[in-house]
Design brief:
- The chain has an 8-stranded mixed beta sheet with strand order 3-4-2-5-6-1-7-8, with helices on both faces.
- The chain is 27% helix and 27% strand.
- It is built from 3 helices and 8 strands, in the order βαβαββββαββ.
- It starts with a strand and ends with a strand.
- It has helices spanning 15-28, 40-52, 115-128; strands at residues 3-10, 33-36, 61-63, 74-77, 88-91, 105-111, 134-141, 147-149.
- A hairpin with a 5-residue loop joins strand 7 and strand 8 (147-149).
- The longest helix is centred in the N-terminal third of the chain and has 14 residues, at 15-28.
- It has a single domain (3-149), classed as Rossmann fold, CATH 3.40.50.
- By secondary structure, the protein is α/β, with parallel strands linked by helices.
């Protein structure tokens, strides 16, 4: 099984604005997802934004640790645990997880205005090209905020 890795280079929006819209698409496709990040403050902000950013959508989710996380289609986590059986992972820190083969799709979101973050994403991009079973696509935000495939 090949794991598809999508690099999402944010140039016009912030993660808390972009993630809810991506989650709508992931849920519409029938997937379960885990969102991983090391910054608990950001995860708490995303927890709030998944309820409020898109007024006419319902994005059921849980912020770990919590009860009944296994029932949620979206789980926000600062660790490697995947209680909901997700096959899609959103990574808020540009690095490959140890359990990459567990997922059919990874989405790496990174801020193009942050030079360190951008360099880490480039390092991961180069690394992926050398690992069998991984394929990568690169998306950048267009002028109006939509995504354009760059590579």
């Amino acid at each position: 099984m090949t794991t598809e890795i999508g690099f999402y280079h944010l140039t016009r929006g912030r993660i808390e604005q972009v993630l809810p819209r991506l989650m709508v698409k992931v849920l519409e496709a029938g997937h379960r997802v885990v969102v991983r990040g090391r910054d608990m403050a950001l995860l708490r902000l995303l927890d709030e934004k998944l309820w409020t950013e898109i007024p006419d959508s319902f994005l059921p989710h849980a912020l770990l640790p919590c009860e009944n996380a296994e029932a949620q289609p979206i789980v926000l986590s600062e660790n490697q645990h995947v209680p909901n059986g997700a096959k899609v992972a959103v990574l808020l820190d540009p690095e490959l997880p140890e359990d990459v083969s567990q997922f059919s799709r990874l989405l790496l979101l990174f801020d193009g205005q942050d030079a360190e973050c951008l360099q880490r994403a480039r390092t991961v991009w180069k690394k992926i090209k050398q690992i069998e079973g991984l394929s990568a696509t690169y998306w950048t935000q267009g002028e109006k905020g939509g995504w354009q495939k760059s590579a």
